[in-house]
Design goal:
The protein is α/β, with parallel strands linked by helices. It is 34% helix and 22% strand. The strands form 2 sheets. A 7-stranded parallel beta sheet has the order 7-6-5-10-8-11-9, with helices on both faces. A 4-stranded mixed beta sheet has the order 1-4-2-3.
Length: 246
Amino acid sequence: MEKTDFIYGKNSVIEALTSGKREINKILISKNLHTDSKIEKIKELAQEKGIIFQFVGREKFLDYQEYNHQGVIAQISPIKYTDIDDFIETHKENSSVVVLDGVEDVHNIGAIIRTCVCAGIDGIIIPSRRNSPITSVVEKTSAGAVNHIPIIKVNSLSSTIQKLKNNNWWVIATDASSKDTCYDINYCDMNFALIMGAEHAGVSKSLLKMSDFQVKIPMLKDFNSLNVSAATAIIVFEAVRQRLKK
């Protein structure tokens, strides 16, 4: 990750939190700091805005010794995230969104975003925890596609999935043990949310239970599962194929 992805120092972080002009993904605070009014202010503002802050060891700051970080670093995003309620309000018919559940590799996320833009997916949902945020590396890997699709960051995937279901969205989760394949679903004439999990863990059990459909990609050889970005491409372009055919 590039060092330009960060804001350094207590005052700078407070200013960024107060102004709201920079989208902050996460704040790191050194465990070795003695708490003071500025640290308390940072924690208070972060909690108000739903921004994660973590107390970490001094080794996390070794790469940033050239900066006057004062034991506080804020990781910023190159994009402005879209609000989930605004997204739902403006996407009511034949819309689609990809939900990333625990995908931490920035190159995979960048590739998925690029694929989704090409396939006409309307948005991408990522959780604030257990998932890579949108960084400059993601932006570069996506070849700038992050600027052409709404990215929605949420605190709770389960609450978001339930909100989508309450607003006439159908939820499709990927599961290697599913009986149905991604070719058995009719993606036309409905709003659908496609949940993609991390390579090793897959989609979490709680989200699988909430899904309306569970699908797998059929394999002709018994080999390791596909990379998540390749798997996403296969499924979303099946939706493209069906919609073009119709």
